[in-house]
Input
Amino acid sequence: MAESNGKGRSAEADRYRQAATDALEMLDWCIGYLVGTHKEKIATQIARNRAHIRRDLMHEPEEPVPTSKG
Output
């Protein structure tokens, strides 16, 4: 049986959340790279996907992408 971390989540759930957070950081890097190589259309779509993951799947507030304008 999974152990609780005191916040009502198991250690396994915390590992999955950390993996998702790490994946979002990798997406941030990819978005910045694509913007730097003038592939803004692809970067914009990936940024939308990233926002959906944070908002709808992780239930966390959206954060601006470091390379986003305004």
Summary: Residues 2 and 13 are 9 Å apart (CA to CA). Residues 26-60 form one domain. The radius of gyration is 15 Å.
